[in-house]
Write a structure and sequence with these properties.
Blueprint (H helix, E strand, L loop, with lengths): L7 E2 L1 E8 L32 E8 L2 E7 L6 H9 L9 E3 L5 H4 L2 H4 L8 E4 L7 E6 L2 E6 L4 H6 L3 E4 L4 E3 L4 E3 L16 E5 L2 E4 L8 E2 L1 E2 L3 E2 L1
Parallel strand pairs: 1-15, 4-5, 5-6, 6-9
Antiparallel strand pairs: 2-3, 3-4, 7-8, 7-12, 10-11, 11-14, 12-13, 15-16
């Protein structure tokens, strides 16, 4: 972990922008989970993938980070617009891992956020990857994350393997996790090109986030 301490926040809001399903009739909310009521003919879109907006509140400070963007960008941006989210307030981008259903929408999303916003990721997010499906036998290349294209778009790429606390100290990006048990050592169909050799993908770039929430501890 870098020298900055993970500071306590008063409140965290996590808004799911991309998920695998949508349901117009699922309206029930609780104090912890709020479902938005969107009048027809408006409707949220869904696609295979993930994206969420993370907002932290501490005293008078409010900070916003975006984790993943889904595949198309169309889904994420449409849902963000329905929720009237100002993407210009995003201060950091976080990539959970280097699979296309989590980053491919960057091409569209970058046009809606401030130039120079840092993108935090594990170096292995740029690995070439494929699916080696045994039955029926099929090799399927997965779209790679292109470092050169990101740099050309003005993205501030921050490659980090270890735990890292985002400035000003409210969000912890979890670092590389040691693979100790068999079920942690990769999905047999998923392969990555490491040192010019196709091997079972260890997914070292897989990462999460944590916050220290007042009265609740680390979440």
């Amino acid at each position: 972990m870098n020298e900055m301490k993970l500071l306590e926040v008063d409140k965290v809001e996590i808004t799911i922008l991309v998920d695998n399903y949508t349901d117009l009739l699922l309206l029930q909310s609780t104090k912890v989970q709020k479902r938005p009521a969107v009048p027809p003919p408006n409707a949220f879109l869904a696609e295979h993938g993930f994206s969420c907006l993370i907002k932290t509140y501490a005293r008078e400070e409010e900070h916003t980070a975006l984790m993943d963007v889904g595949i198309t960008g169309t889904c994420m941006l449409h849902n963000a617009d329905l929720l009237k989210i100002d993407l210009g307030k995003i201060e950091a981008l976080i990539l959970s891992h280097g699979h296309f259903d989590h980053f491919w929408g960057l091409k569209q999303v970058l046009g809606r956020i401030k130039e120079g916003v840092p993108l935090f990721l594990h170096p292995d997010a740029f690995l070439r990857r494929r699916l080696n499906i045994p039955n029926p036998k099929m090799l399927m290349d997965l779209p790679p994350l292109e470092e050169t294209a990101l740099k050309d778009a003005g993205v501030d790429i921050q490659k980090i393997r270890e735990d890292f606390v985002l400035d000003p100290g409210f969000i912890l990006i979890l670092g590389e996790v040691e693979r100790l048990t068999e079920f942690e050592k990769g999905f047999s169909w998923a392969e990555a090109n490491i040192n010019n050799d196709w091997v079972k993908d260890p997914f070292y770039d897989d990462r999460g986030v944590a916050m220290n929430v007042k009265g609740k501890g680390w979440l």
